[in-house]
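Re: the 451-residue chain
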Amino acid sequence: MEEIRQLEQLKQMIEEKDMVALKDEVSRMNEADLAEILEELDTTDAMLVYRMLPKDKAIDVFTYMSHSQQLQLIDAITDQEMLDIMEDLYFDDMIDLLEEVPAAIVTKVLAAASPEERRQINEFLMYPAGTAGAEMTIEYLALKPEWTVEESMKFIRENGEDSEMVYTCYVVDEKNTLLGFVSLRELVVADDATLVEDMMTTDVIYVKTLDPIEEVAERFQKYDYLALPVVDKEHRLTGIITFDDILEIIEDIDTEDFHRMVGIGGDSDMDYLDESAWSLAKNRIPWLLILMISGTISAGIIKHYNPIIAKYIILTTFIPMITGTGGNTGSQSTTVVIRGLATGEIELKDVFYIMWKEGRVGLVVGVILSMVNFIRLMILGTDLGVSILVTLTMIVTIILSKLLGAGLPILMKKLGFDPALMSAAIITTIIDALVLVVYFNLAGLVLSYIV
């Protein structure tokens, strides 16, 4: 509600052309809130408000904007304003933005950069997307082992303002080889004459430049560090990844996995409201086509068992309930296993234990649901033979669905594919076909003896 009030207030000031009050209001607002409000304004009004901001605050607001909003702003400002923004951004934020903007803007930024900055920018842009090297920043504090605490604190005071992380200082030799780290807390309470090498921790948790970002995220979740150093193949410190950056990456990974699980493609960096209807449609059509065509398998199975259906037409009444139950139970197991694989809670070696556990879960759930359904059918006056058939089918269906739902994502992982590709829709399609085979084969056996 507060943001809505602020938005309406800004709109009123713009409409009344009260620039003094507008400048005073936006200078007091929180940067993250202001970034959201700017997204609600049209481009002209957003630019007017943005140019009212003090330079330091404007940069902070820019970092809170979505990528699409940042690109819209860059299209609307002058080249010099764009270069000013790039110059004041943290290095990793600048690299992320350069990967999105047109080549002409990258060329302008490189032309305005110093030779050393140009080399660093080109080096970072060459790291493959989705690796630690592509996400790291070079704005960290590195101390020398021979420095005293007094020398180290002087260095931190002089350079800490430009660093993304001052709480952890890394220790390197003359070749920039990573030797250890020391916390700011330890430096503050230590004697001024103490050498860094005498107090540093040498057991360093690090990642390599070409490590997949998913592995980096797992390291953060395991060790709860504020930052992790990134080293090259010679163990030289090339940058760090901070926890706030990895939080954004984890969110993107989770969004991408969720899209895959429900059979949706698309660019996770683009907001839903910013994507066109055609863009959304073209990302969904391939999966829908695959599922539609695969649905003909179920139709073929039903056609194959037409003689049984013709004899016991009532069997068709229970097909939606049986296949729906199978799909739902299978999707539950799939979701749990995919999430477990993503967080590292479940590993490939656990496959037999998982299958055994899901099998037992399926048995318990199957018996309970089947008995409830059997009582319901008998109350409704359904034939005894049909009630027994549906009950047995439900038990087999639920156990089979639990096993498939748990096993197929693990199989995908074993084959080197993303387990999230085994979406709930695909699981449901596979289970539907198998359930129909079970249902009609049991019908042939059970009804021939009982009816």
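Strands lie at 140-143, 165-172, 178-183, 207-208, 227-231, 237-242.
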